[in-house]
Structures are given as C-alpha cells and as structure tokens.
Amino acid sequence: MPSPRPLRADARRNRESLLTAARQAFLGDETAHVDEIARRAGVSIGTLYRHFDTREALVAEVYRQEVETLCATSGQLLEQHAPDDALRVFLLSLVEHAAVGRGMGEALESIMATDSPVFEDARDEMARALDELLAAGAAAGLIRADVDGRIVLRALGGICGIRTEGWREDAERIASILHDGLCNSPTRGQ
C-alpha cells in the first residue's frame, strides 16, 4: 500500500491549528464540541472533518501526541540527571499526565468504547520509556534490574486510577515510595 501523500502547506497549518485548539480545549477544564474547536482553529467544520473523520479521531490524535511528547522526555531526563533521578522525575510526570483536565478526561471516555488502539499504544510507549530509564539505572547500579516498565506502569496506573479527593498528592507520594523501592540502597544485597 503506497504511503499517503504529504499534506500541502495550508492543509498542514489547518491540521496543526485544529490540534492546538483541541489540545487547549481538552486539557483545560471544559468540554469542547467540534464546531467550537473548528472556530477556535479558524477553520470550517468541513475542514475539521477532512482531517479527522470523527471527534474521537481528533481526541485520539491529541492524546497520542501528548503521550509521545511525555515519553520523548525520558532521553532528555537521562541527559540532564543521574538515571535514578531521571526515573523519579519521569514517574512524577506520569502522575501529572494522569491529572488531565476535565475536558480531556471526558474526551478520552468517549473513545473507550471504540476500537481505537490509542490506550494500548500509549501504554506500550510509556512502558518503553520506563524500560529505557530502568535499564540506564540498572546499568549504573542505581536501580534494581528485575523490574520492567510495564510492571512500574501498572503499579502507577493503579495509584492514579483512584480519583478521590486529594488523589494527586497521594499519587505523588506513592510514586516517590515506588521510586525508593526501585532504587538500590547501599546495603541491599550485602
């Protein structure tokens, strides 16, 4: 199957304007309808639907980009911090990612019932980023080597899934406890 033709410059600008407007709406505390997103992007509703055939497709693309941006930070964190500190910062970033605005939470709920692979793809990408951080930490002797990214993500997902009052502060504290449990202490194994 041949790859799709690249978008013309004006079509690329329209697509990026739509994604920017949708991201601002979804990550804010509002529920935005597609006609409002198109208006904010300065395009017609028809242009929105030429790029995204459903609202769910737009939501999925915004979420995919957010996860991609988040996961790209793992390499940057390793350049800026020791591997154990990079892991700590990334775990807290995952908690922050889970604390999406009301609009994004509602938007994501709308695609949960579809066949979209967006959540599985996101989990895979986050697990790969964690694997990179864990491997760097294990190679440096700072992080235990018997845990992979999927297990850490599962633990953190369970923490972030309980949305009672004060959940975010609790999740940040528990992420720190999780981090401490992953770190090799000077006396471990002696």
Description:
The chain has helices at residues 9-27, 34-41, 45-51, 55-80, 83-98, 102-112, 118-139, 149-160, 167-182. The chain folds into two domains: 8-53, Arc Repressor Mutant, subunit A; 55-182, Tetracycline Repressor, domain 2 (Orthogonal Bundle). Mean pLDDT is 85; it is low at 186-190. The chain is mainly alpha-helical. The longest helix is centred in the middle third of the chain and has 26 residues, at 55-80.
Question: Features of this protein?
Answer:
9 helices; Arc Repressor Mutant, subunit A; 2 domains; 190 residues; Tetracycline Repressor, domain 2; 72% helix; mainly alpha; disordered C terminus
Structure summarized in a few sentences:
The chain is an all-alpha fold.
Oligomeric state of the chains? single chain
Indicate the proportion of strand residues.
Answer: under 5%
CATH superfamily of the largest domain: Tetracycline Repressor, domain 2
Largest sheet: none
Which CATH-level-2 architecture of the largest domain? Orthogonal Bundle
What is the percent of helical residues?
over 70%
Backbone CA Rg:
19 Å
Number of helices, counting only DSSP H or I runs of 4 residues or more: 9
CATH class (first level) name of the largest domain: Mainly Alpha
The residue ranges in which pLDDT falls below 50 over 5 or more consecutive positions are 186-190
Count of discrete structural domains:
2
Shape: elongated
What is the arithmetic mean of pLDDT? Answer: 85
Which topology of the largest domain does CATH recognise? Tetracycline Repressor, domain 2
Would you count the extended β strands for me? 0
* Strand-pairing-aware structural class: mainly alpha
**C-alpha termini separation:** 57 Å
